[in-house]
Amino acid sequence: MTAKKNKGPAFGQRHVQSLLIFFAIVANYMGKFNASVAVVAMTNADTSNHDIPTYDWNEMERSYILSSFFWGYILTQFLGGWLCRRFGARITMFASTFGSAVMAILVPFFVPWGGWQSFCAIRGCMGAFQGMLFPSIHTHLANWCPPKERNRLGALSNTGIDFGTLLSMFASGLIAASSVGWPGIFYVSCGIGVLWCIFWLIFGANTPRQCKLISPEELEYIETSKNENNKLNEAKEIRHIPVPWKAILTSVPLWTLFLVRCTQSWGNSTLQAEIPAYMKGVLQMDMKSNALYSALPYLCSWILAFVYVIIADILQARGILTITGIRKLFSSLASWLPAIFLIGLGFLDSDQKTWAIVLMCLSVGINAGSTIGSALNTIDLSPNHAGILMGIVNTGGNAIPILTPLVVGVIVKNENDRAEWQVVFIISAVIFFVGNLFYVIFGQMVSQPWDAADFLDKQKGSHIEENGEANRKAIEEVKNTKQAEEKNLSDQQDIKT
Predict the structure, then answer these.
(1) DSSP label at 374?
(2) Using one digit for the tens of pLDDT, what is the confidence trace for 184-195?
(3) 454: which DSSP letter?
């Protein structure tokens, strides 16, 4: 009689960890993207409480504020990966979220005193804290996700990106237009972040083995499935596995992923940071409508993220597509279709609000496929070094949003000018297309040889064997040469005799 295979509980601690990651992303994205709405309220007295001070910031100063978050964000990606290996994802993710929450509460107190420059400094510090988030998340997912559930749990966790952006756009606009005014945006953001930290300290755990609430059945299921997949010695923790830097930094699949994440980041950051200004300037919408319609594309993205998860599960379970086919298909849908819609969006004006909203919803919504398409590819390439890879990829991907608001600031001199916005959207569309083309051609979705726990040991042993073989051949050659010389000498003596 065949023993029943352990598939783990239908809802267990691995799902709890995924939910905690989901809410961590929501909390951090509230702080990350509320500035795009807050800046509009802070510079327009008609969109906020008249008793709350507003500021006369020009478009370039507003662009500096929006991009300043990423000045700090790109500096701590590697630090986040290293801290995860040194202290674990639990404490690193806590420090990231708590630090970001503290920065949010500082804005209402320091901006009246220091102006837009102080806002930039606070946003830069917030970015530095949040830069440690996604290396922590990918390390945590690699520790907790059985390979067959990686798409599902990873994608569901990352739907926090869409929901967090949605909540930020929608709630921030309503708060700014209320009696609390724009300072309330930052109070709420701080409160949500601190609340998550409390739950994380109670329920978060670095690994299944360190979790006190996990059942023996689920622990066995997770560890067995992971060990079967990557042949990792169970006794060897990830933090004890040396990083093969040379192999990682010369990996074509990694740099292909790096490129596509950068190009997708360009399109995403253009939409996320500039939608409120575009809708106010070109579509002539007031703040409350702006908040609703700015959030609507991310509602579509959040809903479609679940659709992508269901479709991916079906395709993989029925053997219709391999994980490689699924990733490349979803990445293409998430890049090439929004590229087309972005171009169309630039040709619409305030008389075509409905079509503009439809195209924005399609662009942002369909782009939700990039999570399964490329964002989880770091774990495919190397579960053991997922945090390090995410640090590399996210550094590049988040250097891009530093540039996009500045590019918009250079191109868009008059936010009411549709022609200027057309240039912005066409540039984003071209970048979207080219980056994904490289990913389709060169991308890989299998564990790389350098992911092996003993890769460096084997490589060192191989060098020793090569050197030993070279020495053996050299000794043999010297021996043969000496024998030949002795034979020649003997022959000469025989001739003389």
Answers:
(1) I
(2) 999 999 999 999
(3) T
